[in-house]
Design brief:
Layout (H helix, E strand, L loop, with lengths): L1 E11 L19 E10 L2 E7 L9 E4 L4 E4 L1 E3 L11 H8 L4 H6 L4 H9 L3 H17 L2 E7 L6 H17 L3 E9 L10 H18 L5 E6 L6 H13 L3 E6 L7 H7 L4 E4 L5 H7 L5 E4 L1 H7 L6 H6 L5 E2 L13 H12 L3 H8 L1 H5 L18 E4 L7 H4 L6 E6 L2 E2 L2
Parallel strand pairs: 1-4, 1-5, 6-7, 7-8, 8-9, 9-10, 10-11, 11-12, 12-13
Antiparallel strand pairs: 1-2, 2-3, 5-14, 14-15, 15-16
Helix pairs in contact: 4-5, 5-6, 6-7, 12-13
Amino acid sequence: MTTIFKNIKELIQIRTEPVSFVSGKEMNKLPTIKNAFLVVENGLISDFGSMDDCPEIEGEIVDVTGKMILPSWCDSHTHIVYAGHREDEFVDRIKGLSYKDIANNGGGILNSAKKLQQTSEEDLYEQSKVRLEEVMQLGTGAIEIKSGYGLTKDAELKMLRVIKKLKANYPIEIKATFLGAHAVPTEYKSNKDAYLKILIDDVLPKVAEEKLAEYIDIFCETGYFSAADTELILEAGKAYGLIPKIHVNQFTAIGGVQAGVKYNALSVDHLEEMRDDDIAALQNTTTMPVALPGCSYFLNIPYTPARKMIDAGLPLALATDYNPGSTPSGNMNFVVSTACIKMKMTPEEAINASTINGAYAMGLEHKVGSITKGKDANLILTKPINSYGFIPYAFGVNQIEKVYIRGEVFK
């Protein structure tokens, strides 16, 4: 099947040469074509250019006069497979309790783990697919999903099997991450090493046997897991071919960034607290820093210092962190807006961070993230807008008219 989009007001994020990701000053460059055409064949981008050069070919013609097209969002950090919600903790924070206070009282990750352990795999899938469809409608065309709300062998495997089922039943790219080391279960509170041993000796082999994950993650944070714990888990994952993606520097900086770089982590995520030596450690590496501004907004904690990092020559990706406790939203449009408003990123930087750099943070830069011949036609068609800067500017209004996944309108 061939579809020709004509009279595109502006075709955004066009890349004619292979680009894995963009860094530093290059993040402020967003290549586009005004008054453009785009040809999609069998779900892939086959041609694009100026309307002056639009070919005469047979196929479905879609006139999008006044509207723009850009690649769909690439959300490289989510926890959308979870059970229930935690709005009671939201109210507790309004009343003055901190994230740490809530966790110490049995809330937080442990609260979600308890709910998930009591939820059937079928019910968990039904809850999760609603969230997946919701974010796809909001323009997400590739997504990473983590386990980590199970904290037992059976519950972690249940989560990963749900992710595998979502991957089988939906047309977008879905990457699975094993995050068994998300928190220490209550029964192992005084023996964290015993829990890590179970993850390494008992759970990891099963994850590998069933091919349930491509990545391994750990919450490297004060009160959770140390840099030494992080290296232990990453080393264990490496033995099974799992690539590291780490939660680091959310509340404190304790060496997790350096551990990630040492183990060639694909990404290090959160980074709300960044020291100069953390930034230096990431320079001239292939590890993608990932910021999660929705989490900073919801928890009222510092934002990742995007300006300082980009000005130091680093790349940056943006993701939602969609989860029930610290970011109950998978809206990448809001993430792009918040990055511009609160992190002082330009629209060009924010779009690059949410497309090509987000794709790289999932190992998908060769399939999605830009308008490039041969890539999946995962596209956002905007409503009539003046410029792409209007997307982050009008932060409370959805500017998306249609979402295409492999060239088909997602309904």
